[in-house]
Amino acid sequence: MIAAPAAPSSTVAAPSAGPVGAWALPLITLGFVIGVLPALVFVGALLVFTSIGLVAGGLGGAALVGFLTTLVGGGVLAEQPWLVILPMLVGVAAFAAGIAGSVAALRRRGSPAPHAVTWSAAGLGLVLQLLVNGAVYFAVLLVALVIGPGPVGLVFFGGEPVPLTIFVVLALAATAGLGWLLWLAFGRVFSDPRRRPAPR
To answer: What is the pTM for the complete model shown?
Structure first.
């Protein structure tokens, strides 16, 4: 007796979320480093010194002015604060674009939990990329010290263009690869109905 062929499944697996993370994590990381983190520091310091000003009067105001002048480096930057504020705004916009773009892309791919995948992968990715890119940085620095034509500075390779370019390229590749893996992993985790966030 020949068994009847099984009926095709009505459920179709959503495409992998990995490719989304390959561009989303670098964008989110860049935005966090040049925008969100400095903005948090700036706003936190502003709140602290404003509170001091409310309590101590003129002394707090003088302290706030002195802090802000030091923060932007004084001189030209103090006279042109947009040289500091504009990169922060661009960074915050890049961070928001990475988050929103990831959610939208995952939704188009049929992900059942695009917000959960994005925020989980981005949160863990921001921590892990520090470790990964830190290892990349010191590896490039070590190679530059061993085979380079001369001494290399420890901070951003002393501005030497070759090792700095190599690091940027490798760091972007490493962050993209890490994003691919994290979005892929959390995409699979939240594809399980038991692990999806409860609907609001």
So the answer is: 0.75
Q: For residue range 103-125, list pLDDT tens digits in order.
A: 999 999 999 999 999 999 999 99
Cα angle vertex 43, ends 37, 44, to 5°?
A: 90
Number of Cβ within a 10 Å radius of residue 158: 13
Per-residue b or e along 31-65, where b marks 16 or more CB atoms closer than 10 Å to that residue's CB: bbbbbbebbeebeeeeeebeebbeeeeeebeeebe
The tens digit of pLDDT for each residue in 41-63 reads 877 777 776 777 667 665 555 66
Tell me the residue type at 2.
I
Domain parsing of the chain, residue ranges: 18-194
Residue 170 to residue 166: CA distance in whole angstroms: 6
Residue 126: which residues within 8 A CB-CB, separation 6 or more?
28, 29, 32
